[in-house]
Write a structure and sequence with these properties.
This protein is of the alpha+beta class. The chain contains five helices and 16 strands. It has one domain. The N terminus is likely disordered.
Length: about 300
């Protein structure tokens, strides 16, 4: 897993705006191994999508007051994290985001002024959904977070982006590392995990040439393919994942409590980006084969290594 800087990771949790600034990090020597048009329904509403396999009813529409997620610093991240983790479906507009930020206070690093709407649409409630993000125009903005005190470049995004979402919940990862002449294996326990994979539109990070030259293989241009939201040791993190120009794996981690990119990746979270990207790709193949509504034992099997 190599290091890199992501800018549109926050822009996808409840759309794509939730990760608009993640960094991609990792050791430079080790490479990681059709959506419909954006909804145009009235603000804050979305008609229910029939789900023949779902026995429970689905409530569509945003609450009158959008609550913050405790432990998440940025107001936009906090609102969107709460919407995703509370099982809320519907459309949130730029005007609604402005109103809620003004109500709860605080300043966001995320470019929500460029957003037209973010829609979370159920596929298999409690398991899969589609996230649709529409900007006013294609995005080309400076990366909103810094690495080592510098804003390393810019991020671009298509005017319309669509992500698949899987509500993973708890997952235990196992990561092996070579320590001298022996191998050590550690476990990484994640909770409240939501995994997202890009299926329409492009999100890219373009690193300034002088930063690229300074840090070499530790940071590079990246195409973002997947995002993750989850808790580790009780704290919320966002993980952005993708591939460099040479198709080497890239990932980076944003602390939602500290509201900053963690560079380099903390020892306890090394391997999360690589493993969760592989799971997103496997789940995407299952979705393409008609398995978007699989749940229960079947979906747990899909998440095994």
């Amino acid at each position: 897993m190599k290091t890199h800087r992501l800018a549109l990771a926050p822009l996808a949790l409840s759309g794509t705006i939730l990760f608009a600034g993640l960094g991609l990090a990792g050791p430079p020597a080790c490479a990681d191994a059709i959506a419909r048009p954006v909804a145009t329904t009235p603000a804050d509403t979305l008609p229910a999508v029939p789900d023949a396999l779902a026995s429970d009813s689905v409530h569509i529409g945003l609450p009158a007051v959008l609550e913050r997620q405790p432990g998440v610093n940025d107001p936009i991240f906090s609102i969107l994290t709460r919407l995703v983790t509370s099982g809320t479906y519907g459309t949130i507009t730029q005007e609604r985001l402005r109103q809620e930020v003004a109500r709860i206070g605080g300043k966001s690093r995320l470019p929500y002024e460029s957003v037209v709407s973010i829609t979370r649409e159920p596929v298999k409630p409690g398991w899969t959904a589609l996230i649709r993000l529409e900007f006013q125009e294609p995005i080309d903005l400076p990366v909103p977070y810094s690495i080592l005190g510098y804003h390393p470049g810019s991020f671009t995004a298509s005017q319309q982006c669509v992500f698949r979402e899987w509500e993973v919940g708890k997952i235990r990862l196992s990561e092996s590392e070579q320590k001298g002449d022996h191998t050590e294996t550690r476990t990484i326990d994640l909770e409240d995990v939501h995994l997202f994979a890009s299926v329409e539109g492009e999100v890219k990070i373009d690193i300034d040439a002088w930063i690229d030259a300074l840090l070499g293989g530790a940071i590079d241009d990246t195409d973002i393919t997947a995002l993750m939201l989850g808790r580790w040791q009780g704290e919320w993190y966002g993980v952005a994942m993708g591939y460099g120009h040479d198709h080497s794996g890239r990932s980076g981690i944003l602390s939602l409590r500290q509201d900053k990119i963690l560079f380099p990746t903390p020892d306890g979270l090394r391997g999360v980006g690589r493993q969760m990207r592989a799971r997103a790709e496997r789940l995407g193949r299952i979705w393409d084969a008609g398995g978007a509504r699989l749940d229960g034992v079947a979906r747990r099997m899909l998440l095994d290594p």
